[in-house]
Amino acid sequence: MKNRIIILGFIVVLFIQMSLSNQNIYANDSWKSWYCISWKGTVAENIKYAKQLGYEHIAIQADYKQSFYKGNPACAGLKFFMIDPQYPAAQISGYESIVDTTKTFTQEEKDFYNANVAWKSNEPFPNNLATGWLYDNTRFNIAWDLQQQAVIDRLVEAEIQLFKSYEDQSLPFTFAGYILDSSRLTGDFFILENGLNKGITLAYWTGADSGLIHDGITHEYSTYTEGMIAYFKKLNARMKEEFPDAKWILTPWVIYNESNNDEWVNQIKNMPDRDELTPSMITQESPNSTAFVDDSRNFN
């Protein structure tokens, strides 16, 4: 019973501290305080909890369509972030963001994936496609071929359409920006090793930081890294045109690292256009390090 009282007391104190903290945030800085649980619980549960704690910004939950938010009175007054918009943008274009190699594809679907997804080999479809995050031996996230300017343009416009599709000005429920779960400039490519996802680069398959060129496409960017940089610039420019106050947030595994490419600061620190590539916020995903506060390279 004593332990239970101590725990309950801690929860009450934590709740009060968080509530007071949120109340002290200036209105124009409220976007810095966001509740973005997006893979657990229902929309109703997470909105209720976020409002109880005084949050004004939430994340759109994975796999939940616009109908869960538009016209929902519980969303009134909230602003939302989209997490990893590159995936639902495929659905905006009319296609799935997850390729299942056991599925039978129409010729139209084959043409879309072949034209828009990075190639790792010249094997028959779909084994030619570079694999993003793998859910099992047969299903993987697509990895857009960002070395093509046409793909960048198509993806960005689909993302802008996606952002608008969740808005409901009558509530209001409005777009606040986007958050990326990974920030590898070399792309989000994976293989399965002992049943677990292992991050790699295109060089694992092709020997270079580049997907394969094939019939029907051109590569305006010689490396995937260059294409990724061009993509960020185009997306952020278009986002600011449509939503002047929108933010972009990155959540790499660590903020600064010289050997792990799931970071950000080291990748861009020497680039002449690093100011354009500095997001509104960077957060550390790794729970095993205090580097986000005590590594001075983050700030220098």
Radius of gyration over C-alpha positions, nearest whole angstrom: 21 Å
Number of strands: 10
Relative strand content:
5-15%
Q: List SSEs in N-to-C order.
A: HEHEEHEHEHEEEHHEHEH
Overall average residue pLDDT: 91
What is the overall number of helices?
9
Which word captures the global form? globular
Uncertain segments are 1-21
Q: State the strand order across the main sheet.
A: 1-2-3-6-9-10
How is the main sheet built?
Answer: 6 strands, parallel
Structural class: alpha/beta
Helical proportion? 25-40%
End-to-end distance: 49 Å
Task: Describe the protein in words.
This protein has 300 residues and is an alpha/beta fold. It has nine helices and ten strands. It has helices spanning 2-23, 43-52, 88-92, 107-116, 149-166, 203-206, 224-242, 265-268, 291-294, and strands at 34-35, 57-59, 79-83, 98-100, 139-141, 174-180, 189-193, 196-200, 247-250, 281-282. Strands 1-2-3-6-9-10 form a six-stranded parallel beta sheet, covered by helices on one side. The chain has a two-stranded antiparallel ribbon with strand order 4-5. α5 runs parallel beside α7. The longest helix is centred in the first third of the chain and has 22 residues, at 2-23. The radius of gyration is 21 Å and the shape is globular. 33% of the residues are buried. The model is unreliable at 1-21 (pLDDT under 50).
List the helices and strands and how they pair.
Blueprint: H1 2-23, E1 34-35, H2 43-52, E2 57-59, E3 79-83, H3 88-92, E4 98-100, H4 107-116, E5 139-141, H5 149-166, E6 174-180, E7 189-193, E8 196-200, H6 203-206, H7 224-242, E9 247-250, H8 265-268, E10 281-282, H9 291-294
Parallel strand pairs: 1-2, 2-3, 3-6, 6-9, 9-10
Antiparallel strand pairs: 4-5, 7-8
Helix pairs in contact: 5-7
